[in-house]
Design brief:
Elements: H1 3-75, H2 79-114, H3 122-134, H4 136-151, H5 155-179, H6 183-207, H7 222-231, H8 233-295, H9 299-335, H10 341-354, H11 358-373, H12 377-390, H13 392-403, H14 405-438
Helix pairs in contact: 1-2, 1-3, 1-4, 1-5, 1-6, 1-7, 1-8, 1-9, 2-3, 2-4, 3-6, 4-5, 4-6, 5-6, 8-9, 8-10, 8-11, 8-12, 8-13, 9-10, 9-11, 10-14, 11-12, 11-14, 12-14, 13-14
Length: about 450
């Protein structure tokens, strides 16, 4: 086993474990809310998810974009410039988080109604949204710190912090929903405490000075800020698009199957968060290594890392889809606290159709990060826009009006399959360009 593959395995394994743990805070909310508040609570949570996707997307954009720029500067020996990247990333995060907090404080109810919350679930959705939006600085700071730690050679600490925060969230969910009986607010507040605990785990390392990044006096640079945001743009586009897709799918399910359909999609959307987080973990684990290879002008290593990533996606998809297909019925039952047969049937059938698209999703996520790290930012962002918005939304609408609910489930695999063909085309195109330059 060569040294690069060993390093890849270490980074990716730790990051996949961390991302699965991180995604569990929404899954834990789903489980406890379903048990305590039933299908209406599940529908309210799912309607609130697009805003969580926006917060998460901004944090991932700045963490991945800032981390990649940091590693690029660091691998070139430009340590002062690397610290400036960290400082600028934190400043951008502060601006975005402040705006989200203001909207959460003043417009949470209007946003909940805009997202499709009807009279039955408007109050629950508003409570969840306001709490999460007021805590936006915690989510963004946590993502950025974890990304910079990975790029600073501390992937194990990043994983430990992520898992600690996530497991604490599950415990806090149980305490705040079932013991304190705080309902929807308890679920949201427990989620907001998770990044606090994660940050606390990293503090001893950061305060000891073992990290090479720190706040550094620097002037504003629109060029550098643009580099940070565009490099991580594919992550933001993916998350924002996820929010749009959830919104559109909720409307379609409401039309064809009512609140029961929204609740069934809520189960699938939350399981999808875990499935997609696995592939995001592969891509984020690869990112520091690809950025370093690119900074050192080592194209061969960067390409090998891409093929390692694609191989990992194929293996992980096979394992996850087999598990989902075999266990769809008991998994749906866990979230179906009222044992509603209509909800059960919708969720089981939906899982088996919807998650066929996970293979294409994994290939597209890995390819977008690879292209971004190699500074092919435009095709990475175009690919993310196609799979997250410009293909899936019309596909969902068209297929839904032809096949009803089954058409909604089919939209995801159809979209990801089409975009995966585009991903393969991009890889082959840039490989040919590199061959021409080598000659």
């Amino acid at each position: 086993m060569n040294a690069l593959f060993k390093e890849y395995n270490r980074y990716v394994t730790l990051q996949v474990l961390g991302m699965v743990g991180l995604s569990c805070y929404i899954l834990a909310d789903t489980f406890f809310i379903a048990r305590w508040l039933g299908a209406d609570g599940l529908a309210a949570l799912n309607i609130a998810l697009p805003i969580f996707s926006i917060i998460n997307g901004l944090a991932l954009m700045l963490g991945m974009g800032g981390g990649a720029r940091f590693m690029l500067r660091k691998s070139c020996g430009e340590y002062g410039e690397a610290c400036q990247v960290f400082t600028r990333t934190m400043r951008i995060a502060g601006g975005f988080a402040g705006l989200i907090m203001l909207l959460g404080l003043t417009r949470a109810r209007e946003i909940a109604a805009l997202l499709g919350a009807n009279a039955e679930i408007l109050d629950m959705t508003t409570v969840y949204l306001r709490t999460v939006m007021l805590c936006a600085p915690l989510f963004t700071a946590n993502h950025i710190l974890l990304s910079f730690l990975r790029n600073d050679g501390a992937p194990k600490l990043a994983m430990t912090a992520m898992l600690t925060g996530s497991f604490a969230n599950i415990l806090l969910d149980w305490v705040m929903i079932f013991i304190l009986r705080w309902g929807m607010f308890g679920a949201a507040f427990a989620t907001c405490l998770s990044p606090v605990i994660s940050i606390c785990v990293t503090l001893p390392h950061l305060l000891s000075g073992r990290n090479t990044f720190h706040l550094y006096r620097t002037e504003f640079s629109s060029r550098e800020c643009s580099f940070i945001m565009t490099t991580g743009g594919s992550a933001l586009i993916a998350e924002l698009s996820n929010g749009v897709v959830i919104f559109v799918f909720n409307l379609l399910m409401q039309r064809f199957a009512g609140n029961t359909g929204v609740a069934a999609y809520g189960i699938i959307a939350n399981i999808a968060l875990v499935v997609i987080s696995v592939f995001t973990g592969v891509s984020q684990g690869m990112q520091p290594l690809i950025s370093r290879s690119h900074g050192q002008d080592d194209s061969s290593s960067a390409r090998r890392l891409l093929w390692y990533g694609i191989g990992s996606v194929c293996i992980l998809f096979t394992m996850m889809y087999t598990g989902i297909s075999l266990l769809a019925d008991p998994v749906a039952s866990v979230f179906n606290s009222e044992q509603d047969p209509a909800l059960q049937a919708l969720a089981v059938k939906g899982m088996r159709i919807y998650f066929i698209g996970a293979l294409g999703a994994g290939l597209n996520i890995v390819t977008a990060v690879y292209l971004s790290c190699r500074e092919h930012v435009t095709p990475a962002n175009v690919l993310s826009l196609l799979r997250g918005l410009f293909v899936i939304v019309p596909a969902a609408i068209i297929l839904a009006f032809i096949f009803k609910v089954n058409g909604v489930w089919l939209a995801f695999p159809v979209t990801e399959g089409m975009c995966a063909a585009g991903s393969i085309g991009c890889i082959l195109y840039y490989r040919q360009k590199e061959k021409a330059l080598e000659w």
